[in-house]
Amino acid sequence: MNSTIDLIAQRISEAIFFTAKFLKTAWEQPNAPELLGIALAAFILLIILRKIKNYRKPIKLFDNRVGVVEVSRKALDELVQSVCYSLGALNRPDVDIYTRRGRLCMSVSLKLESGQKLTDATAEIQSALTSAFREHLGVEKLGRIDVRVLGFKGLIYKPTTKFLPPAPEIDDEEDDDVLFSEKNPVINSVDDSKREPESKS
User: Fold this and answer.
1) How far apart are CA 184 and CA 109, in angstroms?
2) With a threshold of 0.85, does the pTM exceed it?
């Protein structure tokens, strides 16, 4: 056991030594910084292209006697979004689906309505997603289902009484009929015009 560990440690130290020696020799060459920068940029570009290719690649769900069953990531995203909308999601959920150790995993980010108990709401979402993937898609190897709540919308407690502005106070003297008020001479002027011919006779 100890000899195996010593052998592994020796090989690691030799690999580190040769790597350091190679980097030192390469750095001493003319235009070494430019060449190393180009190599690093090419390496990063290859990683990005590989991730894009893997993202567009359909996910293998299971295989049977006839063949392999694969589903696109877009179809899986739509299934997750429909489940979240049916449970009261207030925005379009952000879904990240990936595989880890042969199991289908997902991460869902969404907003919920205020007033819900967080543990109950997230547990209901996880349970609904589990049943949807197992019953509708036949996925048995289901991994982690992470739910991230981005925010809440709505009132937590609704007031029992509405907060309205106070009604304006009305004076009793001004509550009389406007037509028969002394301040409005409309009726009086009409009556006086009718009485003038009678007085002359």
Assistant:
1) 69
2) no
Quote the CA–CA distance of 193 and 174 in Å, as a whole number: 27
What is the fold of 61-153? Answer: Alpha-Beta Plaits (3.30.70)
Domain boundaries, the chain: 2-56, 61-153
Mean pLDDT by 10 residues, the chain (201 residues): 77 87 77 80 90 78 82 89 87 88 89 84 92 85 90 66 57 51 51 50 45
Question: DSSP string covering 67-110, please?
Answer: -EEEE-HHHHHHHHHHHHHHTT-SS--EEEEEEETTEEEEEEEE
Q: Is 48 helix (H, G, I), strand (E, B) or coil?
A: helix
CA distances (Å), 117 to each of 7, 85, 127, 145, in order? Answer: 56, 17, 15, 19
